[in-house]
């Protein structure tokens, strides 16, 4: 029997990459996907992950039903969906975020749309990722990571890595009482801060927010 | 009931073993009954620093494996009769002991001793998990270098996750002259990042190198500035308020120190 290669799973750096064969039809892909998840459901069980589609171009509706299959079969909550097959490339207004939000399957899916409040700071090696906005009551130290689909608000200093609008939302912002991140990301934009400036200002309380304008991340003071 | 204190840092070479040896001796001088445990299985050093290398018969692994009684493995110090060392095994590795066994061991030692000081290995793996398993409180040792402070931050996060509430900082190898020239992180800088209370400030002191090599902890040396710092830390561990020493001979630094991070004397 020929090996079924219409759907291939790969563990990517930030989640699962699903490669869809160019030669297979949608029906075959859907069936193969269901089969593969079912046979390895223990691996997928109760995970929260990012799913990236690659390979064959499918229509939006077809992709949505694939996502439903994953949710149904694997009992998995999908925090991000990234689509590299090109469907959402064409229709840029449609963000992957909307795809998830369009058809909430259960109350728990809707609940994750709310902001997450973290009641302490984050130390080196600690990480938060969330499908909504994140509010942190403390410092985000160097070596810590915050990844949020929405905005990131830090009631403290940012010294680590913060990624707002991680699903592609360029209107997302980051704000904090002191902002000297190792690296700052909003949507697909990445920036870092000049070291010399950091030396002089690292202990100052200086509330600022960062946002995307055009092709770059800007940082501005918060004033009335 | 004794108290179990783990001395840890994440990064290697910042002075965990030196701190352990000095605090052990310091507490013994203050007439406390103390056990030092070297948890660095496979890379033991505390016995050397204590000058007790040639007296090891049984070690930590022998105790947890039941090859000897706990009392047999406690090496009595040559200077202080109320100070004991439980050496690490040198021919085994960290997996020879489990966190549960460490908890049991600490609980047994707690019965008869005032302080149990655990010298934690560098890193955050099995050896670290073993060392903190039975601890009531933790002393994080850091030097004023970015890499050391980063690792200390990681360690504090892990200690908090392990629900060790009382975590204090010993900032080791401070160079007031370098701080003045803005070539070294200040105490303030470090405290700002780590957000934990300072237990002690230890100046860089060449005497530490010689005392470590001789196996005679500096805490007993009245001429050593680092020794004075460790005597002060010993007092603070026992709950006595001792003002922070002047790191420099010249005045003014203390005032600056107090002002910049509002030390409660």
Structure in words:
Chain A is about 25% helix and about 35% strand. Chain A has about 220 residues and is α/β, with parallel strands linked by helices. In chain A, the strands form 3 sheets. Chain A has a 6-stranded mixed beta sheet, with no helix packed on it. The longest helix of chain A is centred in the first third of the chain and has 15 residues, at about 60-75. With about 260 residues, chain B is an alpha/beta fold. Chain B has a single domain (about 5-260), classed as Rossmann fold (3-Layer(aba) Sandwich), CATH 3.40.50.300. Helices cover about 40% and strands about 15% of the residues of chain B. Chain B has helices at about 15-30, 45-50, 60-65, 70-75, 100-110, 125-135, 145-160, 175-180, 185-195, 205-215, 225-235, 255-260, and strands at about 5-10, 35-40, 75, 85, 115-120, 135-140, 165-175, 195-205. The mean pLDDT of chain B is about 95. At the A-B interface, loops of A face helix 7 and helix 9 of B.
Read across the widest sheet of chain A, the strand sequence of neighbours is: 5-7-9-11-14-15
Low-confidence stretches of chain B: none
Number of strands of chain B: 8
H and E order of chain B: EHEHHHEEHEHEHEHHEHHH
Fill in the CATH topology of the largest domain in chain A: Pectate Lyase C-like
Protein chains sharing the most extensive interface: A-B, 13 and 13 residues
* Uncertain runs of chain A: 85-112
Major sheet characteristics of chain B: 8 strands, mixed
Fold-level CATH name of chain B: Rossmann fold
Decide which structural class fits the backbone of chain B.
alpha/beta
Task: Give helix % range of chain A.
Answer: 25-40%
